[in-house]
Amino acid sequence: MQTRPGTRPRRARPKSGRPGMWAIRGPLSRRQYWMFAALGLLVPLGLWWIVSSGAAVDKVFLPGPVDVFKRLVTWYTEDDLLSDMGISIYRVTTGFLFSAVIALPLALMIGTFRPVQAVLEPLTDFIRYMPAVAFIPLVMLWVGIEESSKISIIFIGTFFQMVLMMAEDVRRVPLAQIEAAQTMGAQKGETINLVIFQAAKPALLDTLRVTMGWAWTYLVVAELVAANSGLGYSILKAQRFLQTDKIFVGIILIGLIGLVMDQLFRLAHRKAFPWLHLRS
After folding, report:
1. 194 belongs to a structural domain
2. Using CB atoms within 10 A as the burial measure, which of 78, 113, 230, 247 is most buried?
3. CA 247 → CA 38, 240, 252, distances in Å?
4. Is residue 129 part of a domain?
5. pLDDT tens figures, 161-194
6. Helix H segments across 53-196?
């Protein structure tokens, strides 16, 4: 670069090492995150309002946001909405917890010991492709039509998927960690509890978060079994009477409850494993 006599060459300004938000896996502040999240929610809501406001759209087929909100108020004041929400939350969480309590030790065994994997993984893989709704007649025959039947359907819908995903989380624990523990004299039980399980815990919690979402997808199926309350039952009942606005309310409420639970799992993950969420 040519310079005038008696002058110093200009130094190039160092570029900032911090990538922008549109870089691959670029940073995003909490404020920016919530701004984009609000945009992602408001844009579909606006499109829904615009489409449903058209004269050519029948309210029976696509009620508007105002109609859905009015139905929400009616359901809350006249039809005991809180009771329906409470019983659905109870059914989903109970079925999910039963699945998690049984799936976790099985997944540790499948992911740790090859003979256990050979015995249980093909069978679990076979059953998980069977639709949960196909088990309704058997569940009614074996368990009855009380609350246990609804919980059983949610259990069937989540358990087998959960086992396989958790077993894969366990298998991802590096073999070097296991060999290091064995070199230091760790016994088999100590290796499983203090090395494999501890290393897999972050991934296991993520798997629980994902499968909780699956548990909610089986709610309507579970409440097909002689139910007289719950969000899924209300959706099915509203279908018979062409109460489309109530169907929308039920679907939105299930989504909102699931979103809250998902955020609670994320919060638990950040609190339990803060080193995985440190910003660079």
Report:
1. yes
2. 230
3. 24, 11, 9
4. yes
5. 999 999 999 999 998 988 898 888 888 888 999 9
6. 65-78, 81-112, 114-128, 136-142, 147-171, 175-183, 188-190
